[in-house]
Amino acid sequence: MSPVDAFRLSDAAARKYQDHSVPAMFAPLADATVKRLNLPTDGHVLDVACGTGALTRAIIEHLPGQGCVVGTDLNQSMIDIAQSMTAQTEHNVEWVASDVTELPFDAQSFDLACVQQGLQFFPDKPAALAEIFRVLKSGGRLSLTCWRAISPFNDALAEALAIHVSDDAAQKARAPFSFRDGDLITSLLQDAGFSITTHDGIVLQRRFEDLRAQVLALPVEQDMRAKGEAAIDQVLEDIAARLAPYAQGGVFIVPQEAHFFIATRP
């Protein structure tokens, strides 16, 4: 399997992502990101690795004037859901299934490009950033978020999986947080030709109201089910014990930190 193919998702996986991961993490992160962006009036905006469109829809909602917003993702399954969830708007909206290293757009087409939690999954990060640089106009900006620290939830999940399921499952639980070195991200952006104008953080407060449903919505579900219901119960009990310091009124409220970069193409 090629590195790119490893990130292709089935229709069912894309739907589960939208139903659970988007409201829990990606929609709140999108809202926090858009509040920090000075969206260009009548601008042309590209959302790379858009998933089911959480950030894209937030941009559409807040973009002033009559601009153009394009969401692109490797997975057609994600694009289909994103398109089906997007309301009518005065903006020109397009959805495109594409590899980030081969974007089907002319050079210097966009005023702003965004990557929300996608960089860590790009197999060839320099090539991806070079391609985004290519399609940005001179003076155009790249908004980038990438997790800054392992979430206490994912750390608890990984520890429980290592004990009750497998080391491979534990590694999957930590995978989204595997690329969190701010200095390394800075170097990659600068090597691609960008000038960094902002680097700070966003902290989400992630709510876990139904721990079982939210855990079984993750990619480790198959690993857990292969071990049986008893193992699943043990994992959930272990996670709950580890997250006890974050319990508030029967709900776990867990911080999750992200890097926030703004980088400009000179």
Automatic annotation (TrEMBL):
<feature type="domain" description="Methyltransferase">
    <location>
        <begin position="45"/>
        <end position="140"/>
    </location>
</feature>
<keyword id="KW-0949">S-adenosyl-L-methionine</keyword>
<keyword id="KW-0808">Transferase</keyword>
<keyword id="KW-0489">Methyltransferase</keyword>
<dbReference type="GO" id="GO:0043770">
    <property type="term" value="F:demethylmenaquinone methyltransferase activity"/>
</dbReference>
<protein>
    <submittedName>
        <fullName>Demethylmenaquinone methyltransferase</fullName>
        <ecNumber>2.1.1.163</ecNumber>
    </submittedName>
</protein>
<dbReference type="Pfam" id="PF13649">
    <property type="entry name" value="Methyltransf_25"/>
</dbReference>
<dbReference type="InterPro" id="IPR041698">
    <property type="entry name" value="Methyltransf_25"/>
</dbReference>
<dbReference type="GO" id="GO:0032259">
    <property type="term" value="P:methylation"/>
</dbReference>
<dbReference type="InterPro" id="IPR004033">
    <property type="entry name" value="UbiE/COQ5_MeTrFase"/>
</dbReference>
<dbReference type="GO" id="GO:0009234">
    <property type="term" value="P:menaquinone biosynthetic process"/>
</dbReference>
<dbReference type="InterPro" id="IPR029063">
    <property type="entry name" value="SAM-dependent_MTases_sf"/>
</dbReference>
<keyword id="KW-0474">Menaquinone biosynthesis</keyword>
